[in-house]
């Protein structure tokens, strides 16, 4: 098969050439032993965009070998931090140059609005690369006093080696940058497995990796089915670390495979069922804006989606009225239209999953006061749905939906609010709105989540760590903390004066 495809954008009157092969050693290649294909779908039209090579387990072996060779020869400890920084910055420049086309491709394959993909996802990815480019020549250890007359010790923070990186479909470019940037900064090499639902932008980014001048094998891209490529990376004996963003169920499988193989280092950013608390002192209009963002942004396909909002009883009715009006104002439609604030969910499987939860909410007695009605037109569109009259044991309250479905509950006291918020197996994100500073400190301290937002929601910064507690994962992304996930600390004990007498 040809290793490129012509992707048409009829509304934009343009065509984009997209690579469709596996990217190994800076070349797009076919599978060594498989004819299987991954069909990339446009979720707005329910049509195939193009098909790409699906990597087999043997292809993963080839990619890992390429990454190992690069680590031992042209990357790893063989290149200076200044050179790593230069190349990462060059890659950021190229992504910024091609932001328009990358955003269009992201919209076509993922469904999200082009303006969101361009201005937020890609804009943040460029910033992420530049942030870690700044770290590349600042990886330092410590000098430790042992005995000033005879000995000292020092530490070296060395790249851990070959990293398998498995990214999700909800933020294909953004999650690519979160994984790639810190790994490259410290000197690791990468085998990247994008989601089988959204492989196109990772392949397009691979072109830019080569153009930027990275040596062959430093970044390899192997689209494949999760049970094939993801499983092979997790169990591979020559992969030193695996980083995964996705579901808790899959995270468990990856951790088990890593433990049973070579006990490789693992970082996991998993699911969430994030609570959002609104206290009576809050700016209600602003709180409603942030709560709407928390569930509508990216059509609710967000690990930190604020899918449980709890409101103090004294302001419940007023806040609910505001919230409904804000969510109603969200335009869900074609991502290539600048008026659109949200697109379809990513796939037929995700569409059916979300609607299964909506129907479960209705059958368990919750009341849908907004949405909850299917469209008759083409496309995997789910209009934002708000449920009230909820109970803690309902599926829509307990389980991650990954769609624009919001459960709204009520509380009387601060203690009750905290209890409701923490009543979950997850611990990724949480939010609270209050103009009582003491309350903000008390509640933010009590919430069991890796990230807590106060009087805002769902905004992240590249210099601030992100990750979960409980079943939302282990390890941290972003900030200086992410560098630790890709480094191995070596202690060197240096004797320059002590003479050993033998026998003891």
UniProtKB/TrEMBL annotation:
GO MF annotation terms: aldehyde dehydrogenase [NAD(P)+] activity
Active site: 269
Listed CDD domains: ALDH_F1-2_Ald2-like
Organism of origin: Gymnopilus junonius
Official protein name in the record: Aldehyde dehydrogenase domain-containing protein
Record-linked Pfam families: Aldedh (PF00171)
Domain Aldehyde dehydrogenase, first and last residues per copy: 34-492
Keywords tagged on the record: Oxidoreductase
Protein family according to the UniProt entry: Belongs to the aldehyde dehydrogenase family.
InterPro entries: Ald_DH/histidinol_DH, Ald_DH_C, Ald_DH_CS_GLU, Ald_DH_N, Aldehyde_DH_dom
């Amino acid at each position: 098969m040809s290793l490129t495809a012509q992707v048409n954008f009829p509304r934009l009157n343009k065509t984009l050439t997209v690579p469709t092969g596996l990217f190994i050693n800076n070349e797009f290649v076919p599978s060594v032993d498989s004819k299987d294909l991954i069909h990339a779908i446009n979720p707005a039209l329910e049509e195939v965009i193009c098909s790409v090579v699906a990597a087999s387990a043997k292809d993963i072996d080839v990619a890992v070998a390429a990454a190992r060779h690069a680590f031992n020869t042209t990357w790893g400890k063989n290149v200076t931090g200044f050179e790593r920084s230069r190349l990462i910055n060059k890659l950021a420049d190229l992504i910024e140059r091609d932001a328009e086309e990358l955003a269009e491709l992201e919209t076509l394959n993922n469904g999200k609005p082009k303006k969101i993909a361009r201005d937020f996802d890609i804009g943040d990815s460029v910033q992420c690369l530049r942030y870690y480019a700044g770290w590349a020549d600042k990886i330092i250890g410590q000098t430790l006093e042992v005995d000033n007359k005879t000995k000292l010790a020092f530490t070296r923070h060395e790249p851990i080696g070959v990293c398998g990186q498995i990214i999700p479909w909800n933020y294909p470019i953004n999650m690519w940058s979160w994984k790639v940037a810190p790994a490259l900064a410290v000197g690791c090499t990468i085998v990247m497995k994008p989601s089988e639902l959204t492989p196109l932008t990772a392949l397009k980014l691979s072109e830019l990796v080569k153009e930027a001048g990275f040596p062959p094998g430093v970044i390899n891209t192997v689209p494949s089915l999760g049970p094939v490529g993801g499983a092979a990376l997790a169990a591979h004996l020559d992969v030193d670390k695996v980083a995964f963003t996705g579901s808790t169920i899959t995270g468990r499988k990856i951790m088990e495979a890593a433990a049973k193989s070579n006990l490789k280092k693992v970082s996991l950013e998993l699911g969430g069922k994030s609570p959002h608390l609104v206290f009576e002192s809050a700016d209600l209009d602003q709180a409603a804006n942030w709560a709407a963002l928390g569930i509508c942004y990216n059509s609710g396909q967000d690990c930190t989606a604020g899918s449980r909002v709890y409101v103090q009883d004294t302001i419940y009715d007023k806040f609910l009225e505001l919230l409904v009006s804000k969510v109603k104002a969200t335009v869900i439609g074609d991502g290539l239209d600048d008026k659109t604030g949200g697109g379809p969910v990513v796939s037929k499987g995700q569409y059916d999953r979300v609607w299964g939860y909506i129907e479960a909410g209705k059958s368990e007695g919750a009341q849908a006061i907004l949405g909850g009605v299917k469209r008759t037109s083409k496309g995997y569109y789910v209009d934002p749905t708000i449920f009230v009259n909820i109970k803690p044991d309902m599926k829509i309250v307990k389980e991650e939906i990954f769609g624009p479905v919001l459960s709204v509950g009520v509380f009387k006291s601060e203690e009750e609010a905290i209890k409701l918020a923490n009543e979950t197996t997850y611990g990724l994100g949480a939010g609270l709105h209050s103009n009582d500073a003491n309350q903000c400190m008390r509640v933010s301290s009590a919430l069991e989540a890796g990230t807590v937002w106060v009087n805002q929601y769902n905004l992240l910064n590249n210099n601030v760590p992100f990750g979960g507690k409980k079943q939302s994962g282990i390890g941290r992304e972003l900030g200086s903390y992410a560098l630790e996930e890709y480094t191995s600390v070596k202690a060197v004990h240096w004797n320059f004066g002590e003479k050993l007498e033998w026998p003891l």
